[in-house]
């Protein structure tokens, strides 16, 4: 994984979520790294698409807290 990713959530089953930014476009995105028992697949998700997924899950709340901390 790129050093430009910031982990913002990890579930008890081993899934991890990271916030990243494309250095060329400066667009933010979410990376989901599935746990090994689920295949360990890494998925890149556009930030808006991630936040528009429902229902609100703990990883959504964690990302919103991270975003909120950046404006302090």
Please characterize this protein's 3D structure.
Strands 1-2-3-4 form a four-stranded antiparallel sheet. 25% of the residues lie in helices and 31% in strands. It is of the alpha+beta class and 72 residues long. It is globular and about 35 Å long. The protein is built from two helices and four strands, in the order ββββαα.
What letter string, H or E per element, gives the SSE order? Answer: EEEEHH
Distance between the termini: 28 Å
**β-sheet strand percentage:** 25-35%
In one word, what is the shape? globular
How many distinct helices?
Answer: 2
The largest β sheet comes out as: 4 strands, antiparallel
- Average pLDDT rating: 90
By helix and strand content, what is the structural category?
Answer: alpha+beta
- By DSSP, the count of extended strands is 4
What would you report as the Rg, rounded to the nearest angstrom?
12 Å
Instruction: Give the proportion of residues in helices.
Output: 25-40%
Query: For the largest beta sheet, what order do the strands appear in spatially?
Result: 1-2-3-4
Low-confidence regions: none
Which SSEs are present, and which pair or pack?
Blueprint: E1 6-10, E2 16-21, E3 28-33, E4 42-46, H1 47-52, H2 58-69
Antiparallel strand pairs: 1-2, 2-3, 3-4
Question: What attributes characterize this protein structure?
Answer:
72 residues, alpha+beta, 2 helices, 25% helix
In short:
By secondary structure, the chain is of the alpha+beta class. 25% of the residues lie in helices and 31% in strands. The protein has helices at 47-52, 58-69, and strands at residues 6-10, 16-21, 28-33, 42-46.
């Amino acid at each position: 994984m790129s050093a430009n990713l910031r982990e913002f959530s990890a579930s008890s089953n081993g899934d991890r979520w990271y916030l990243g930014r494309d250095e060329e476009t400066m667009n933010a995105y979410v990376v989901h790294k599935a746990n090994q028992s689920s295949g360990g697949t890494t998925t890149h998700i556009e930030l808006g698409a991630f936040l528009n997924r429902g229902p609100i899950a703990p990883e959504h709340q964690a990302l919103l807290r991270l975003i909120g901390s950046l404006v302090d």
